[in-house]
Amino acid sequence: MFAKIFLLLFLLKGFSEAQECLSRDYDHGGTVCVCNATHCDTIPKPEKVEPPELLVYTSNKAGLRFHLEKKKFEPSYLLDNQIIINPEKKYQTILGWGGAFTDATGINIASLEEDVQRKLLESYFSKNGIEYSLCRVPIGGTDFSVRAYSYDDGEEDKNLTNFKLAEEDHQYKIPYIRKALNLTENNLKLFASAWTAPKWMKTNEEYTGFGFLKDEMFQTWANYFVKFLDNYQEQGVEFWGITTGNEPSLALVPLNQINNVGWDATEMGKWILNNLGPTIRNSTHSNIKIMILDDQRLFLPWFVDLALKDNTTRNYVDGVAIHWYLNNIVPITVVNETHSQFPEKFILATEACNGPLLGVGPVVLGSWDRGEYYSVDIIEDLLNWVEGWVDWNMVLDLTGGPTYINNNVDSPIIVNATAGEFYKQPMYYHLGHFSKFLPRDSVRIDVNNTREENVLVVAFQRPDSATAVIILNRNENVVSVSVVDPYKGTAQLEISEKSITTLLYW
Questions:
Q1: Is 247 a catalytic residue?
Q2: Span 301-317, mean pLDDT?
Q3: Of 122, 131, 168, 351, which is the active-site residue?
């Protein structure tokens, strides 16, 4: 009798630790995993294996999601299609992975029952999820709000006497940020980005359009950032970093409806030197990281070079933030060049998403291709000194919203509030192969991939001394590879067609 009870408890324990994907096919070139009040797939934290064993996690277009196998290294010998690991040659260190706590994210989480909300947050932040570690928080409203707003609307208020967090902060951001912090045991780092200043600070006195900061408002705008940090601190939320503002180039885009503050490089440099830099460094948030640009890599390296030509300005800035939206027309070499010119500055990818394209979308449930686009960009970034990758909205609805300007896009998790469920897209799992297995302080190591270009590879040494190798196979066929580690031997693997695979070994 005791043996039967023990067996039942063991089985229940195993089930609770690793629930499988409840797959659903919407005929869009892949599948989603459905989560509801009674079921949601999980991925337990990897357990250390002893040499010569290694763990192999596979997600693929056919429907596998973090499928785990154990393989072994064998004594090294010459084989074709080698992936050669060189742990002695090291590059950048990982800062983290995550998404953004937009109003839309919070609105969609709030539309679910509490137990389903918990499963969604655990999917992103818990040890049984993909373990996000670095997230973005908008300062005020964005295009993924239900209205345009700042924290000091109305008449001119240079002393920011009327500064006040919005209802959206208290209802849709701070509560879920706190829950995420709890799930990560306060291991979640946050950085903040502003979309727009109050209208009275801007030359066109509008949230959108061809509008720049008035010269006489330079100091007030810097004070506004500190006010935001102070107010969130009072709510128990501390920040690791800020950016100089989301996509200043939007002010130059005709008919653009996204709220913005326009900057040219020279004026931004002056603002950092005379206002933002000293204001932050002399505040109670003096250790916060300041990131410049927060825009497309089209502006690398020249914008950063112009803004930071004064060495004092350069000393105020810790990193460069980049977005992915024009990457198809701008080579990755500009990122490498930026690192070469500013080796002391980290480079962080701070926004990306898939959206409508040629009549497809905005939300495409189950699209493997959209997840693959993420992995291609992440690996390309990692191979060129980028230290982390942050997605845009963590959660959207079936329409790709809400967004008050109808700028609907896709997201790794899509909520169907009517059905009381949410869907984990392939994008979620592609991101998870990096965020789950490359924790903060992992260091990229050299890898030589002799395969064709449709197989992309990146490798890291983790803080726990494990080596993680991530292999993206974009081919429609299985690829045989030999992973060679000079200290472990050779592992012969069959990499599934249309897949992303993570190898983990100690």
A1: yes
A2: 97
A3: 351
